[in-house]
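On clarity, I found the account of how folds are encoded harder to follow than it need be. For illustration, here is how one protein appears when written out as sequence plus C-alpha cells:

:::
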Amino acid sequence: MTPLPILTTLGHPLGAHMSVNGGLHTAFARGSSIGCTTMQIFVKNANQWKGRSLSDTDVQNYKSAAADATISPVVAHAAYLINLCTTSGTILKKSRAAFLDELSRCEALGILGVIFHPGAHLGKGESEGIKLIAESLNLIHERSPGYRCLSVLETTAGQGTTVGYRFEQLRAIIDLVEQHDRMAVCLDTCHVFAAGYDFRTENGWNEMMEQFDSIIGLKRLAAIHMNDSKREHGSRIDRHEHIGKGHIGEHGFRFLMNDSRLHSIPKILETEKGDDMSEDVENMRVLLSLVKGADSQ
C-alpha cells in the first residue's frame, strides 16, 4: 500500500490506532505503510488487568523502530477495564495498579502520554467521582516520581455515569491533581459531539474551542481522536463512524483541519478497519482533502 504523499507536504501529525500484534515495535511498520505521521497503540492487552513485563529487548526493539520511522509523537490508550472512580474497593485498587503499570511502560518506551477515560462514578455522583479520580491520580503520580509521560484525560460522551463529558469536569480533576504539569487532555470529536458540543458550523466550532481554551487551556491539548459519530448530537452515546459518514459530517472536520492552533496536535483515527487498513487510508484522504490549498499540493 502506497503511503499518502501529501501527509508530509501538509505537515499535519495524522495517523490511527495501530495494532501491536507481533510486538510493540511492529506498529511503526504498519503505520508507515499507510503514511501515518503519528499513531496510538496499546502497550498491553486492553482487556486484561495485567500483561507480560516489558523486557530489555522489547524496549530496544521499540526504540530502534521509532528511530527508523517518521512517526512522532506516539500516544498510548489505557486498558478499558480501568475505572479510577469506581465504587468497588477491589476494582479501584486494580485500576490504580493497572494505570501505574501502563504509565511505567510508556515511560520506559518514551511515549508521550497515556490517554484514559476518567471513569464512571456508578451512582455516587459526579463531584464525588471527580474527587476520587484526582485522588487516584495523586497516588499514582506519587508512585512514579519524575516521570515525563503525561496522564491524558479523554473527553467522554457522558454515557451512563461516566465523568468527563463537560470541559468543566476535566478542569475540576486537573485542579485537584497536585502535579499539574503531568496532566493533559485528549479531545475526542465523536465524544464531544455526543456530549452536546455542536461544531458543525464555523460559529459552533469557534465557540467550542474558545470554551476549551478558557476552561482547560489549549496548552494542555495533547491529542485529538478523529471520529465521526453514528449517533446524533447530544445523544450521550459513544459510537464511532468513518469521517464524513456520520452526524458530524465533513464540515466539522474541515474547521478542525484548518484551525492553525491545532496544526501540530496529533490527530488520530479510532474507526473500525480491516487488516489492510484501507479504511484508515480513506479517512486520512478525506481529512487531508478538507485542508485549504490541498488540491494545489
In short: Residues 89-109 form the longest helix (21 residues).
